[in-house]
Amino acid sequence: MFGLASTEIVKIFCIMILIGVVVIKIAERRFRDRERTRFSNMSSSLMALEIGQLNMRMSECKTSHVLHFLLCIPTVGFWALPWFLLAASNNSKRNSFKVLSKIAMEQANQKDLTKEKSHG
Fold first, then answer.
1. How many angstroms separate the CA atoms of 87 and 85, rounded?
2. Higher pLDDT, 32 or 66
3. 0.70 exceeded by the pTM?
4. d(CA 40, CA 34)
5. What span, in angstroms and rounded, lies between the C-alpha atoms of 115 and 61?
6. Average pLDDT in the 31-55 region?
């Protein structure tokens, strides 16, 4: 295939996967930092709404493994790379939403405690 030996194809495939994972991790870190800053400026009632939205978005980040497996059949396995990258991305997003939800709840609790101390 294209004059490449099978070991060279495997190496290229592995390098592409590594690059994809690194890009996903960088994007995940930027996303978390941006959201953390946004949460710090919110009121606790807005944060409660945001937590609900995060949970909804988290449920949307699912990979249809059956569909991707079926796409691998006519493409002779070449669809495995996009499948892997999409699954890793969705897993990363779900983990980010879980972390952000935790951060939002902690910040909301801290704001509530601060209000109670100032009123009490």
1. 5
2. 66
3. no
4. 10
5. 35
6. 75
CA angle 82, 86, 88 (to 5 degrees): 120
Spatial CB neighbours of 107, under 8 Å, sequence gap ≥ 6? 39, 40, 42, 47
CB 100 within 8 A of CB 32: yes
pLDDT at 3: 64
Three-state secondary structure readout of the chain: CCCCCHHHHHHHHHHHHHHHHHHHHHHHHHHHHHHHHHHHCCCHHHHHHHHHHHHHHHHHCCCCHHHHHHHHCCCCCCCHHHHHHHHHHHHHHHHHHHHHHHHHHHHHHHHHHHHHHHHC
pLDDT at 120: 60
Q: Residue 47 in contact with residue 108, Cβ under 8 Å?
A: yes
Q: Domains of the chain: which residue ranges?
A: 6-119
Q: Measure Cα distances from 21 to 6, 13, 14, 16, 114 in Å.
A: 23, 12, 11, 9, 40
| Residue 61 one-letter amino acid | C
The one-letter code for the residue type at 117 is K
